[in-house]
Q: What sequence folds into this?
């Protein structure tokens, strides 16, 4: 008798669960068999700083309005992984900000038609109390002082530590100042603790760590503004825009001769060209974070040719052999490099 | 001040629910669908294996039981990485175009929870009196029918396995992120949105969505328990 009772209870649960499972399976099968909408899917792998600002939504909407035959998906992964993903054929083009890595991406045959699209500056930020006393110093002097004060136990530094574009820049800046970040990370201050902290995390997490620890760090301007505005951090800017603080964004398309090429060259080039048109460049220039524009379009700057200082800085930092993209890495795109 | 995002989140969460925010509905439905599909697939594969494992008496049975139990603890980031390479366009099943799609997430989550189903079902079935199966056989049932009889008797454990799998899949972040890519309008689910909002520093909104996630999972579990209650 008890058996019968427990059977009917269990039967009801069974029915509910079965319904859920069936809905799930049917849903899955339906998804699989969705009739092709006829749109070409374009996958762009890009940097987390674009992703976290919300800029990509704006970009997607505008591009798809102009080119309704495309459905763009942005994958944000941090520059190192973004390039690796594209190399595996899982993305059709990349939008990143690490010229040294981009050069390798071109020379090993993965990417072609690299074009600079926008730029802004990294910022050196830190606690308002300025324990290392770097106020008013240049970036090189500031870094040297931070290292000295860090080793003395008076200051801390937080690094992204994740091979992102920001991390790459940080390593390059320390190198320029005469330091090897790998060695810095292994150092201990007089209390026996490391003063160079490697977060291995995204920008917001890194900023919050720096904030909590009263440490200095390198950041992109958009993340800084966002996190300041919503009260997550109370760090202040110490070194701002300047030649050494340049952050340059470029677009690179997967080469049609690459082993994992997926046949999307035309679509990818449509996207690249769009970024270079007045509409595309305006998207960068008009995008605001907390009331401030955070990206500066490259093409208008270059065309106007009035701010030769900045132009020269960018060319020295992000050009390869005197151009966005050496001739041998161009495919059907010579018009872009006139 | 530090409570701010937690409280702020409750207010935002209430607003999102009351206004029936379409984006939130979309990601919630997507979370439900992928979890349900994952549980369904895991059930299809896991229940037979679980029963066979629970009832069987072959060599290596103990090893397999321990193996599946251990697989329940596989870090999702590792599994996600493995599947990422597998589903990649340059991977062995890349032609199926599973990466950055909802079916891909469902399949990935199914792989994640199948060991759970197998483990739970095996234990539940094993705990039941073996006599049930023998009794069914003497009454003329086939191998298949008598296994079904055992399943019915062990139903409490089996339903626990399925509900737990659903909950696990619903709350999954790592796999949804790596396989799905958190693409807006396509593969974004509750957990990945919470993660994104957190990374963007929008802690209030992250909390709001977390409350919604908890409400959904609690409601579902209570509903199932209530429907299957003692009369």
A:
């Amino acid at each position: 008798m008890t058996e019968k009772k427990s059977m009917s209870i269990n039967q009801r649960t069974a029915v509910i669960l079965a319904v859920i499972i069936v809905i799930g399976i049917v849903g899955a099968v339906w998804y699989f068999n969705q009739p092709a909408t006829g749109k070409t899917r374009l996958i762009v792998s890009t940097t987390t700083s674009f992703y976290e600002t919300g800029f990509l939504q704006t970009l997607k909407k505008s591009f798809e309005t102009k080119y309704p035959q495309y459905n763009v998906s942005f994958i944000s992964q941090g520059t190192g992984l973004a390039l690796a993903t594209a190399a595996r054929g899982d993305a059709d083009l990349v939008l990143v900000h690490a010229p040294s890595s981009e050069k390798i991406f071109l020379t090993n045959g993965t990417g072609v038609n690299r074009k600079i699209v926008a730029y802004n500056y990294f910022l050196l930020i830190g606690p308002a109390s300025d324990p290392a006393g770097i106020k008013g110093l240049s970036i090189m002097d500031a870094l040297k002082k931070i290292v000295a004060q860090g080793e003395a136990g008076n200051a801390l530094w937080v690094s992204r530590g994740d091979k992102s574009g920001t991390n790459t820049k940080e390593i390059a800046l320390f190198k320029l100042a005469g330091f090897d970040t790998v060695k810095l990370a292994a150092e201990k201050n007089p209390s026996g603790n490391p003063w160079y902290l490697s977060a291995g995390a995204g920008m917001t997490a890194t900023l919050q760590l720096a904030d909590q620890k009263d440490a200095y760090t390198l950041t992109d301007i958009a993340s800084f503004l966002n996190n300041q505005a919503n009260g997550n951090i109370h760090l202040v800017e110490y070194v701002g825009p300047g030649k050494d603080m340049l952050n340059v964004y470029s677009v690179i398309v997967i080469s049609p001769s690459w082993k994992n090429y997926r046949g999307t060259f035309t679509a990818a080039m449509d996207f690249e060209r769009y970024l270079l048109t007045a509409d595309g460049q305006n998207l960068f220039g008009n995008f605001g974070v907390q009331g401030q524009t955070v990206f500066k379009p490259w093409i208008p700057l270059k065309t106007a040719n009035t701010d030769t200082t900045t132009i020269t800085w960018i060319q020295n930092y992000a050009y390869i052999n005197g151009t966005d993209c050496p001739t041998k890495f161009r495919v059907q795109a010579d018009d872009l490099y006139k | 001040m530090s409570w701010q995002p937690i409280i702020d989140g409750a207010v935002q969460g209430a607003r999102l629910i009351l206004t029936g925010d379409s984006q939130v509905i979309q990601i919630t439905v997507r979370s439900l669908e992928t979890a349900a599909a994952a549980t369904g697939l895991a059930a299809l594969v896991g229940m037979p294996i679980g029963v066979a494992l629970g009832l069987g008496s072959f060599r290596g049975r103990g090893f397999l039981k321990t193996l599946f139990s251990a697989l329940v603890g596989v870090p999702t980031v590792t599994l996600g990485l493995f599947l990422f390479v597998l589903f990649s366009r340059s991977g062995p099943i890349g032609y199926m175009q599973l990466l950055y799609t909802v079916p891909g997430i469902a399949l990935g989550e199914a792989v994640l929870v199948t060991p759970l189903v197998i483990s739970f079902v095996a234990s539940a079935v094993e705990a039941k009196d073996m006599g049930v199966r023998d009794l069914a056989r003497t009454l003329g049932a086939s191998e298949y029918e008598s296994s079904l009889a055992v399943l019915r008797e062990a139903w409490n454990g089996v339903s626990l396995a399925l509900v737990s799998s659903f909950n696990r899949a619903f709350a999954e972040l790592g796999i949804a992120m790596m396989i799905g890519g958190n693409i807006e309008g396509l593969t974004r689910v509750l957990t990945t949105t919470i993660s994104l909002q957190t990374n963007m520093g929008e802690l209030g909104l992250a909390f709001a969505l977390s409350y919604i996630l908890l409400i959904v999972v609690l409601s579902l579990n209570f509903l199932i328990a209530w429907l299957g209650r003692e009369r």
Notes: The first helix of chain B runs from residue 4 to 18. Chain B touches chain A through 48 residues (CB under 8 Å). Residues 100 and 190 of chain B are 16 Å apart (CA to CA).
